[in-house]
Amino acid sequence: MQEALAYLHERRAEHLGWAKELCRIPSISTQEQHKSDMRRAAEWVRDLCVTIGCDAEIHQTAGHPVVYAACCHAAGAPTYLAYGHLDVQPAGDLSLWDAGPFEPVVKDGWLFCRGAADNKGPLLVYLRAVQAWLETAGKLPINLKLLFEGEEEIGSPNLTEFVTQHKRLLDCDGVLISDTSMFQDGWPTITCGTRGICYKEVRLSGPKFDLHSGGHGGPVVNPANALARIIAALHDKQGRVAIPGFYDDVVEPTPEEREQMAALPRDEQQYAADLGVPGFAGEQGWSVEELRSVRPTCDVNGIYGGYTDPGASTVIPALAGAKISMRLVPNQVAEDVGRKFEHAVRSRCPGGVRCEILDHAMAQPYVAPRAWPAMPVAERALREAFEHEVAFIREGGSLPILTLFKQELDADSLLMGLASPNCNAHGPNEKVSIADLDHGAAAVVRLLAHLSG
What are the structural domains of the chain? Predict the structure, then answer.
């Protein structure tokens, strides 16, 4: 292992070059004009896998391709699957970038480029570790498979079919993922779980066209008024979600988990200042850290209806709607919560308007078992590489791939975040700390060794 670590250190410049080269490819999965770039990114990673000594191939899906690679020569050793994604978000407003979004720039120890943090830099740490082991020991301490997809930023619409059709190929004892953030810059972090999501759209329609509010206001039910009352009734005065049965299946965090979260040095005033909000509210009895990670939520994501252009137009709108998402925690089931939400909305909808509810997204919550032997092994590898104690957190967002791997491969996932919480993923001037990538590669070298035991 020490030889592999020394090799990593010697090749830091070369490995930074890998990240720059991959980041230059504008692999934007959501835009049709970049379809060839998605293929180019897959071919680039496939070729790198082959160059460093892995067997690798590209699999075409109904959308963008996936890359599968393997280095499985350790008889009797466990097998793990490393996952990452090659696609990136669109560049957005170019005027907000200090340089071209696909022109890598190194400044003050950071690599700036779209995809640097999400997820090209972090996924390459696994290939860096593989190369280090193969060049110094001739083989890995464990069997390692690698899966790099091209559709994570658009919800992985074709990954489920690929995984279900290739269960034998992907069979493993666990999944290694570095597509989450650290608790703070330079603080190694294991994300133990993520929230699920149930995302709906409520559309209330009344008259067949907008009406004069003077001539018809009073007897005609205003869809916007009705929608406002329905939304207001989604929470009670204590900040709890007021959907009957919403909390029936919620499994609260253990006292140990709450103690760990309370010990994390979250400066709530600074956090509020960073977000530009005057303060926090939410469900009473829970800390800010808990509210953003281990408690379920219900939030309006957008409202529309009526006249919103400049000037005045006194109408009763024919249509009003809202997009509403609920973040879920164990053991809530997205489909069950969706049914309860629909029942609550329809029961509160007044006569005189028609109610239509659309589905947008569903994903189940996921929590890795703390008793899983791989968890303390990962903690040890990260602590040794970063020379810093490890933070254990839960992520407030949703990662549908985690339940996919659990359901189809019966494999739990180790989420080892390498991105800064201030990396601007999806925004302008996305960046990643080069030191964190170096430490992350060293952690993976150590992790492969420790997992072999």
Answer: 2-194+365-451 (3.40.630.10), 196-250+296-363 (3.30.70.360)
